[in-house]
Amino acid sequence: MVLELCTGGSLETVIAQDQNLPEDVVREFGVDLVMGLHHLHRLGILFCDLTPGKILLEGPGTLKLSNFCLAKVEGESLGEFFTLVAAEEGSGDSGETALKKSMKGRVR
């Protein structure tokens, strides 16, 4: 597995270190976050577990979403997804593999 290196840590860590971020930085983070979610929605992917700990910073401040384990394809119920994850866990595969199989051929 190859992952992108995000040296800035998570947004959760940044907030814990500096609870008084400048307004322009917060605004930039907000724009990055909305653009990222909009891009995913255009692809038919729903990011279902958005928390500051799952938002990583690349370098000085570009946000990247991480941990798509609970993401689902538009139109798919969480019940269907969890059934697929449970089947994969029983075979020793990860939920990440289940997500890829679930999205294969269904993402626009």
Question: What is the topological layout?
Answer:
Blueprint: H1 11-17, H2 23-42, E1 45-46, E2 55-58, E3 62-65, E4 72-73, H3 78-90, H4 95-103
Antiparallel strand pairs: 1-4, 2-3
Helix pairs in contact: 3-4
What is the tally of beta strands?
4
Q: State the share of residues found in helices, binned by percent.
A: 40-55%
> Residue ranges: pLDDT <50 for 5 or more in a row?
none
Spatial order of the strands forming the largest sheet: 1-4
Tally the structural domains.
Answer: 2
Name the overall outline.
Answer: elongated
Mean pLDDT: 79
Per DSSP, the total helix count is 4
Largest sheet, described in full? 2 strands, antiparallel
Rounded to an integer, what's the Rg over CA atoms?
16 Å
The run of helices and strands is: HHEEEEHH
Percentage of residues in DSSP E strands: 5-15%
Classify the secondary structure makeup into a structural class.
mainly alpha
Name the quaternary structure. single chain
